[in-house]
Amino acid sequence: MGTLRVGVLGALGKVGRAVCEAVDAAEDCELVARVDAGDPLETLTESGAQAVVDFTHPDVVMDSLRFCVEHGIHAVVGTTGFDDERLDRLRGWLDGTDVGVLVAPNFSVGAVLMMRFAVEAARYYESVEILEQHHPTKADAPSGTARRTAQLVAAARREAGMSAPPDATSTALEGARGADVDGIRVHGMRIRGMVAHQEVVLGAPGETLTIRHDSLDRVSFTPGVLLALRAIATRPGLTVGLESFLDE
Amino acid sequence: MGTLRVGVLGALGKVGRAVCEAVDAAEDCELVARVDAGDPLETLTESGAQAVVDFTHPDVVMDSLRFCVEHGIHAVVGTTGFDDERLDRLRGWLDGTDVGVLVAPNFSVGAVLMMRFAVEAARYYESVEILEQHHPTKADAPSGTARRTAQLVAAARREAGMSAPPDATSTALEGARGADVDGIRVHGMRIRGMVAHQEVVLGAPGETLTIRHDSLDRVSFTPGVLLALRAIATRPGLTVGLESFLDE
Amino acid sequence: MGTLRVGVLGALGKVGRAVCEAVDAAEDCELVARVDAGDPLETLTESGAQAVVDFTHPDVVMDSLRFCVEHGIHAVVGTTGFDDERLDRLRGWLDGTDVGVLVAPNFSVGAVLMMRFAVEAARYYESVEILEQHHPTKADAPSGTARRTAQLVAAARREAGMSAPPDATSTALEGARGADVDGIRVHGMRIRGMVAHQEVVLGAPGETLTIRHDSLDRVSFTPGVLLALRAIATRPGLTVGLESFLDE
Amino acid sequence: MGTLRVGVLGALGKVGRAVCEAVDAAEDCELVARVDAGDPLETLTESGAQAVVDFTHPDVVMDSLRFCVEHGIHAVVGTTGFDDERLDRLRGWLDGTDVGVLVAPNFSVGAVLMMRFAVEAARYYESVEILEQHHPTKADAPSGTARRTAQLVAAARREAGMSAPPDATSTALEGARGADVDGIRVHGMRIRGMVAHQEVVLGAPGETLTIRHDSLDRVSFTPGVLLALRAIATRPGLTVGLESFLDE
């Protein structure tokens, strides 16, 4: 495999700069275009970019993607705000082309693996609960990743024909047993000094299995971006979520 | 120090048998009397017991203790059901004697140390939360030890003039942030395969301190009983809680 | 699926008794024969056993398995002492039959999942080390499971073309960096009060992933035995290791 | 207590800047002088500094401290390179004055508490081992803090008349049981993504107690610096180590 020519959209943003650095440092990638607000998209075609990474804004991302698809440029997208309507529009543009686009809410390989392992293990353990721990300036509880994990685990249990986890609690202080997400208990801690951490605890008679992900620094998403860049050319059409790129 | 002559009340119960075994195995103790329901308390005086361990029943414990105090026998008591009235009555009997009686709800040295360390650390950390994990047949949530820890930590924070732990949560699923015990958040997990576990998590900018106690087997209370037996002769009067015996 | 008629060999041993109890409690299994030393193997055929569980002794297991294969009875085997010669002999007997035999050194589903997840995650993390924690009466260090995990992880890294994990240690006390198993560092703790625990820690820039298995009680192997019993009829021939039974 | 007037030596260094920020943010402190290489020490006296924080270099720290002592300015010192000769010289200068000087190798309150709790708990647990986890660019193993913890724990055990922790290991791979520091086993992991973490694991029959410190960011030392600043005026003479400042 030769070197992949990569353009970065949102190159001057905090995330974009980290992406530029990572692409620059990767031996099999070449950073050929840094595009930010105000720069013409033609920079991409003129520089011969084969793929782009887009961490920009919901207001501009659709125009950028339309340009990329029309010019045969693959795209790895971390920008938020994709609802079903947008995803359908994207699918329409991609139809009949060889272009691959990945839209993913989370590029942390560790978070994706944690969710996958939790799902794989779910059918073997009658008990499962989730603990997430974050800095105390976080606005929502539980975290989006914890909710998503609970939903995936709940679905896996339903598919395996499992009933609710055992719980004989008869007297409890309000909130002591956490939040209920599709029947799975989720607990959120807010602790100064922490960044973003999650633990899935599964239990069966005599044993427990714990899968823990600690995210200490934003740089942790760049391996997922590089992994996606390396695979995107062989994945024509739209893919949602990094999960399926970790498969082979 | 010579050998301590020990009698066990409730010697045939599950806990009593474990106590007998532990006393028997301790080099500095001699098990001289095993007393159970129906046996005369005089067995204690006849065998020359210097101290007793009592894990019996609220219905009989006061009579046994009166007998012990009258005969100059020290007592280490794990039997439940001691309210203020009972403790006052005990104090009255002990007044003017050299007899020492310890009444403790929890003989786990580890649980006592965990609480003490949490209290000592509390003033240095703006954030603190408690997670307890137990088998799913437990009826109450959070556990008594977790509540007690939260109360002690809350008191230590008040004494140090600290305000509430930081928490910017603005949208939360019900229960996601745990129960509120005196302003401290407490989370209870119920997992098959677990026994009794607790974690106190403290946080300040850039660092966290975690104190975790795992209790895997009931035998874990016997060291606390032995520790109390060895000290009880030098502690005349009534002591409540194992804590103060860990001090010197 | 109807009820599976199960015989247990070594039914009076500590493990065998636990197996009998588990089979008895399983709704889809019927315990039809308890065989121990001195009992005739014909008990199995007379009781109509369709499958057996064998936790006996290396001296007798081969005779029992020969009998089972000849009489069309599937076997789930936890007895130790299987070398290549024995496995080959077993394969010879099974050749041309519909009988399924599983020989597994470890029936803990959690241990098997931990190893599988470690292998799946290995390629995404430049760093990986293993910590095992056991009771202090264990004779070998590191544990067999930890060694096996290290070997599997090392193989996965080689296959992915990865070099050695980063380590800038230039001055170290002897043993500080653990044992080297195929290039993977393995650390063994011996702590009173612990049973059998293992943690695989993987790290990449800004994030770590930890997979932990706690085995607190011997009963933890029975789910693996039941899982194997339910699948063994559809797995003719010899299978080594519970891993492949967790696949579908 | 009024506001404390503080000068910072090494104010332009990485650590010094963090100290300046912390002093500036503290309500009971006023940052009155930022001194760096080339600046005259008289800045301190002219600005009316009552105490200084010194994170500079072994080459200059002694001159600065002499100046401070002569001018009645208290000092909190994190600069390295203090051997017995230097400490003795400092004591000589301080003799007969009211000036307080603290020299501490580690200003992390959490690390100090972890060590203290490990020492307090040591006598109650027959088993104890230490695990430290750091980034893979660290040169020494085990870490200085882990060694120090092991030495303190070993001393506490000796004082309590305890023998070596139980360990029945008879066959081991080299290094599997960690390094031996005064009879205490210490294990060092090197994992990309980690910063500085340590766990002291204590065990007795049926229970374990774990004290874990996670240091994720350099800012974690500033609370220790502020705590020392607030106390230094009441501690005339030389103090070595932050420990004794956490006592009252």
Automatic annotation (TrEMBL), chains A, B, C, D:
Tree of life domain? Bacteria
Catalysed reaction(s) here are:
(S)-2,3,4,5-tetrahydrodipicolinate + NAD(+) + H2O = (2S,4S)-4-hydroxy-2,3,4,5-tetrahydrodipicolinate + NADH + H(+); (S)-2,3,4,5-tetrahydrodipicolinate + NADP(+) + H2O = (2S,4S)-4-hydroxy-2,3,4,5-tetrahydrodipicolinate + NADPH + H(+)
Q: Where mainly located?
A: cytoplasm
The family database entries (CDD domains) matched by this protein are listed as: DHDPR_N
Q: Where is the Dihydrodipicolinate reductase N-terminal domain?
A: 5-107
Write down the InterPro entries for this protein, in alphabetical order: DapB_C (IPR022663), DapB_N (IPR000846), DapB_N_CS (IPR022664), DHDPR_bac (IPR023940), NAD(P)-bd_dom_sf (IPR036291)
Which residues are the active-site ones? H134, K138
Coiled coil regions in record: none
Q: Where does NAD(+) bind?
A: G10, A11, L12, G13, K14, V15, G78, T79, T80, A104, P105, N106, F107
What does the entry give for GO biological process? diaminopimelate biosynthetic process; lysine biosynthetic process via diaminopimelate
Q: Which GO terms describe its cellular component?
A: cytosol
Write the record's keywords in alphabetical order, separated by commas.
Amino-acid biosynthesis, Cytoplasm, Diaminopimelate biosynthesis, Lysine biosynthesis, NAD, NADP, Oxidoreductase
- Enzyme group, top EC level? oxidoreductase
GO molecular function term, any single one: 4-hydroxy-tetrahydrodipicolinate reductase
Query: Entry's Pfam families?
Result: DapB_C (PF05173), DapB_N (PF01113)
Provide the family line.
Belongs to the DapB family.
> What is the recorded function of this protein according to its Swiss-Prot or TrEMBL entry?
Catalyzes the conversion of 4-hydroxy-tetrahydrodipicolinate (HTPA) to tetrahydrodipicolinate.
Instruction: Describe the protein's quaternary organization and the partners it interacts with.
Output: Homotetramer.
Name used for this protein in its record: 4-hydroxy-tetrahydrodipicolinate reductase
Q: Which organism is it from?
A: Marmoricola endophyticus
Give the taxonomic lineage as stored in the record: Bacteria, Bacillati, Actinomycetota, Actinomycetes, Propionibacteriales
* Gene (name only): dapB
